[in-house]
Design goal:
single chain, alpha+beta, C8orf32 fold, 2 domains, 14-stranded antiparallel beta sheet, four-stranded antiparallel beta sheet, 9 helices, 24 strands, about 15% helix, globular
């Protein structure tokens, strides 16, 4: 019998991908374009003739959770940049480690030519590589997952910001434009970063005269300090993450693991709900989010006079026959493969066929696929970016791995499917969670962690889509307050 991790441990673990993205933004110093929007002055290329290596310590709410080491050296009429991140995170009292390696080739102006990203969390390894072809970034993940992304401009490599500032004479009031692209989530976003002041900064009992630079992402502040020579001294990001200048001797020492990310992100309602897995109706008041979000007023959810109502769906009878039905033209996104949802991969197609067999009823076929994922994927925290093909092979993961694999299997079977992200209630709190929705005549929620079809009414959908959409949940962390107004059971 397969030994499974207690299911309540996996709720919200997909947020680790969010924090890793934000940590990457911190320790790799953002993607800067060589363009100053205020203050004038010409941008000059850096002059780096020998290898340069830097160390950073990473803290979460004043507790050391890891470190990073980066280097840059001249290479083929440009530079080679490498960044290693070592993290130890606490999830429900369980220590989880992650190692990531990013290697980048850039031109003499530090603009991206190609990169390779690898993450290893013990159970799962994630790899991604990319190269620029004109204004198009060609990405590949694993053996057969590829994607082409057209960028508005070629980005400056993340790790190069420190070297960028060393070639500038910045002053208070300067503002820099930022074409930001994160390969782990496929996020593209334009940011603006401003030099807001100058102050004395003390690190490890050493004082520095430092410029304070600020920007924001999803309404959350990101702050970092550089000295008069342009060297990055300290960075502060989301949820208390901080990175500070260190040394080879100091950085790897005394790593604690930090506070529990799982509990830190939880939303505590005004009163508890009993037996939430049986909830058929839930009415709540939510503070801290935009009530105009169309996701809140679609499907089984509706906003009415400032309150959000969730009504558990009723599964329809057979409304179409698999393989004999034409879906609306705009539904291609729910049927076609996406990056890391490799629904046309041979292994996934064969798995879907073996599980669903010759069942042409989308309802019963979807149930078969749901139950197979529930029974065959170990429920354990995994620090990685989910890939359906990788999960099919490793048979392990948290809620995001379960949802990603189920979404891919459904599409492989010809059933439209999409990812949902939001909150689910367990153990007196709402935790961030991921699940699947499938079209079987109506859109029906499916939770492969709990083996629910439809999912209970404590599943509150906030976002819909792949990683580039899921990352937006970061703007809600720490902002939501929930008041329970009414509820009913089956």
């Amino acid at each position: 019998m397969r030994r499974s991790f207690p299911i309540f441990h996996v709720f919200g673990v997909f947020l680790v991908a969010v924090w890793l993205t934000l940590m990457t933004l911190l320790v790799q110093r953002t993607h800067f374009s060589a363009h100053k929007t205020e203050g004038g002055g010409d941008i000059t290329n850096p002059s780096i003739e020998t290898q340069d290596k830097e160390w950073r310590e990473i803290y979460l709410k004043d507790r050391k959770v890891g470190y990073t080491v980066s280097l840059i050296r001249p290479f083929k009429a440009g530079y080679f940049i490498q960044e290693e991140i070592f993290l130890k995170l606490n999830l429900m009292g369980l220590g989880r480690t992650l190692y990531s390696l990013t290697q980048v080739q850039v031109d003499e102006s530090l603009l991206l030519r190609s990169f390779h990203l690898m993450m290893n969390s013990g159970v799962v390894r994630f790899r991604m590589s990319g190269k620029m072809e004109g204004q198009v970034l060609v990405l590949s993940s694993g053996e057969r997952s590829t994607k082409r992304i057209r960028l508005t401009q070629i980005p400056m490599v993340a790790s190069s910001m420190n070297y960028f500032f060393r070639s500038q004479k910045i002053k208070v009031g300067d503002t820099f434009s930022i074409p930001f692209f994160d390969p782990s989530t496929l996020l593209q976003k334009d940011l603006a970063i401003k030099v807001t002041g100058k102050q004395t900064l003390t690190l490890h009992r050493v004082s520095y005269d430092a410029f304070r630079l600020e920007t924001d992402l999803w309404g959350k502040p990101l702050i970092f300090w550089v000295d008069e020579n342009g060297e990055t001294l300290k960075e502060e990001g989301f949820m208390g993450f901080t990175a500070v200048k260190s040394s080879a001797a100091r950085a790897p020492q005394e790593i604690e693991g930090g506070t529990d990310l799982y509990e830190t992100s939880a939303v505590v309602p005004d009163r508890p709900l009993k037996d939430s897995v049986r909830l058929s109706y839930l009415k709540i008041e939510v503070e801290g989010m935009d009530g105009r979000n169309p996701v809140l007023n679609s499907g089984r959810q509706r906003m009415l006079e400032g309150a959000l109502e969730v009504q558990k769906e009723k599964i329809p009878g057979q409304s179409y026959v698999l393989g004999q039905h034409s879906f609306p033209q705009g539904w291609a996104e729910f049927l076609e493969p996406e990056f890391n949802i490799e629904s046309r991969d041979k292994e996934l197609l064969e798995a879907a066929q073996q599980i669903a067999e010759d069942d042409r009823n989308p309802v019963s076929a979807a149930r078969r696929l749901l139950y197979w994922v529930y029974r065959n994927v170990d429920k354990k925290p995994v620090l990685s970016i989910p890939s359906a093909l990788e999960v099919l092979r490793t048979r392990a993961g948290d809620c995001n791995e379960h949802a990603t694999l189920l979404t891919a299997l459904l599409r492989a079977a010809g059933i439209p499917a999409r990812l949902s992200i939001g909150l689910v209630y367990t153990r007196d709190k709402f935790y961030y969670h991921a699940w699947t929705e499938a079209y079987v005549g109506e859109w029906i929620s499916m939770d492969a962690v709990l083996n629910q079809m439809p999912a209970d009414a404590s599943h509150i959908k906030l976002l819909q889509g792949n990683l580039d959409k899921q990352i937006e949940i970061a703007g809600l962390i720490g902002e939501l307050k929930v008041r329970i107004l009414d509820h009913r059971y089956d």
